[in-house]
Amino acid sequence: MGDNGAGKTTLVKIIAGNFPPSTGEIRVDDQPVTFHNPRDAQRHGIEVVYQDLALCDNLSAASNVFLGRETMRSLGPLRYIDYAKMNRVAAELFRQLKSETRPRDLVRRMSGGQRQAVAIARTLLSEPKIVIMDEPTAAISVRQVAEVLDVIRRLRDHGISVILISHRMPDVFGVSDKIAVLRRGELVASKRADQSSPEEVTGLITGAIEAA
């Protein structure tokens, strides 16, 4: 958590391999790693669901899940996209997430919650260790917020760590085991959620509380 300009997005881009860190190190499974690009981060099991979701409205849910990683088949010298297999795999991912999203549905006709499910399903293709979610509940309805929080819990239950970036206190305290607060590029708190409170986090974000 942190106010605008606290450094949350920059930190995400460093973890995701977009930017090199100016100091410090990144460790995965307690081993130091260096990411030169997002592919390096993905190879170490790190996936990101960005705030804008990066979906193509004119494509189906399955095509978005496999965007850039399409399953191909060969027929003699010809190669073509195996839409049937992509639909089957996407359907299984949506089933795991307990989402009502259907593989052949066009993204432009989907609710905010369904769009989030598509973006999250895309991260699961690579069997990630860590999924970073940037403001996933910022612009969706109350019911859809509940769906996204349920998906976060299911990822956790499958052994996947989730880094949630959010301004919404109820969401953070509803799903988090640990809360970290950034202020002006500095880490001012990192503690268990059950040992903190919305009031303390608000104070840390605004500077009313220096550190915790």
TrEMBL record:
It holds the Pfam family ABC_tran. GO terms for molecular function: ATP binding; ATP hydrolysis activity. Keywords: ATP-binding, Nucleotide-binding, Sugar transport, Transport. CDD domains: ABC_Carb_Monos_I. InterPro entries: AAA+_ATPase, ABC_carbohydrate_import_ATPase, ABC_transporter-like_ATP-bd, ABC_transporter-like_CS, P-loop_NTPase. It comes from the Bacteria. Gene3D superfamilies: P-loop containing nucleotide triphosphate hydrolases. The keyword ATP-binding applies. The keyword Ligase does not apply. Residues 1-209 form the ABC transporter domain. PANTHER family: CARBOHYDRATE TRANSPORT ATP-BINDING PROTEIN MG119-RELATED (PTHR43790), SUGAR ABC TRANSPORTER ATP-BINDING PROTEIN (PTHR43790:SF8). Belongs to the ABC transporter superfamily. This is Simple sugar transport system ATP-binding protein. It comes from Rhizobium soli.
